[in-house]
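Sample entry (183 residues):
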Amino acid sequence: MLFPITGVAHILDSKAKAKNFNEKLLAASPKLGDAISAPLADHLRTLGYRVTILDSLERQADDPDDIDYDAIWQLADADALLHVYFSDVGLRSPPSSLSYLPRVNARGIVFRKGHGDYLYDQEIYYGVDAREGNSWAISGDARFAFPDFDAVMGNLDGVHEAFRAGSKEIAIRMAGQVHEALK
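Predicted structure, serialized as tokens:
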């Protein structure tokens, strides 16, 4: 009889922690998009691509990743467009660990002008969702394992650093994969 009540208490506690974490993190949150777009652009440039970051696009506040690609083709003199977005960013304490571990997942899609098919479409996971030995997986840095919720809340700068590190690692991996897909 105590298991369901304990489960409900755990869920309520988790929701309260998530709400507290999100409020504190968002209040001090730097623009994470720059942490992936700048190194991705830099790495693509070193591979010989001409790259322009379109960060001034008008976006819907409730769905900023809903992009009007036809409008972009009107603005950009490009043969292809790489849309990169985060599918999940946060911390998770999986059953296999006592620590809170970073989760940074991002997807990249390369569109060709005048074509409906994708030249590249891949999601890359950094941290807790990564599975070793897969091209879409990057293991998290062990220094970003937070032993408990108090450690998370007491080190929000470290949490931001974990998210930036994951974003950069994803950018480097994605640049190489895009290059291979476009050969």
